[in-house]
Structure formats: C-alpha cells, structure tokens
Design brief:
Layout: H1 2-38, H2 42-60, E1 62-63, H3 67-76, H4 80-100, E2 103-116, E3 120-132, E4 140-153, E5 156-164
Length: 165
C-alpha cells in the first residue's frame, strides 16, 4: 500500500509540475504577445525616422530671401500647438535673419528612434547646420543634438517638440 501511495503522490507531483510549467509557458507567451504589440513594428520605425530626418531639415534650414515660404513649410511639418510656438520664434528672429542675410542648411548626420508607438515617437538626431551670413568670409557650422517628439496626425508624423540634448 505504501508503494501505491508513493506512486500516487509521484504522479500528483508530476501533474502539478506539468501544470505549473504549462502555466508559466502561457504567461511567457502572453507577455511576449504584449511586448510585441507594444513595440513598434519596423514599418513604424522607418516612417518615424524618415519623417524626423525630413522635418528637422525643414525646421533648421532657411533662406532670408524666402522666409514666408519657410514659415509655411514649418507649419506643414509641425502639430498645431508646436507650430504656433515655433512661428513665434521664427517671427522674433526674422529681423536678424534679414539684416544678416542668413542662409542656413541643416544636414542630419545620424538619427535613431528612441521609442515609438503607433501615435507618438521620440527620435534622437545629430544635425550639422551650415549658415552663411553677409560679411562672413566663411560659413559657420553648428553641430547639435536634438530630440524630436513626433505625433501621428491624420497619417502624417508631425513635430510636436524639439529639445536640445
């Protein structure tokens, strides 16, 4: 009888271990599905990176002879709220751009998606901005690192914030 009891106990223990193992595997599968759902797919990352590179070029490149076109272009790549803030900045520096006859051209030297969801993304960019001004013998180059916050609005990734890092 002792052997039968031990055998039953052993079978019960195996059943418990198997049940626990199955539960753990199910939990691991559930967690992986959640992580996969939360992580942006490669297409989103590619779209975000492409938009960030293009949009930072629009924001950081200007020509004093085309400031109205510049203002219009920046409106198209920014959210309504951030666009309004950015427009104030552009208006404030406009006299200086005209006086100095400033022309700036931004080039993204490197960029990476920090994080992204289907609606919001943060992208780190290394940007070299070459600026020529009246009276300067050589252009100046400013190297900056920025983090762009992008929002998906009507299927388009728009800049919602720019932060120096």
């Amino acid at each position: 009888m002792l052997l039968v009891g031990a055998a039953v106990a052993g079978i019960a223990a195996v059943a418990i271990v198997r049940s626990d193992a199955n539960t753990q595997l199910k939990r691991a599968d559930d967690l992986q599905r959640k992580l996969d759902a939360a992580a942006p797919d490669e297409q989103v990352r590619t779209e975000v990176l492409t938009a960030a590179r293009a949009n930072v070029g629009v924001l950081f490149s200007y020509d004093y002879r085309k400031l109205d076109e510049y203002a219009s272009a920046t409106e198209k790549v920014t959210t309504e709220e951030f666009g309004a803030e950015f427009a104030k900045t552009v208006a404030a520096i406009r006299p200086q751009q005209l006086t100095q006859q400033a022309v700036a051209k931004a080039a993204v030297t490197d960029a990476a998606v920090k994080d992204a969801t289907a609606t919001t993304a943060h992208v780190l960019l290394f940007v070299d901005t070459t600026t020529t001004t009246k009276g300067a013998s050589t252009p100046s180059v400013q190297r900056t690192r920025v983090q762009l916050t992008l929002q998906s609005v009507a299927g388009q990734w728009l800049v919602d914030n720019v932060e120096a890092v």
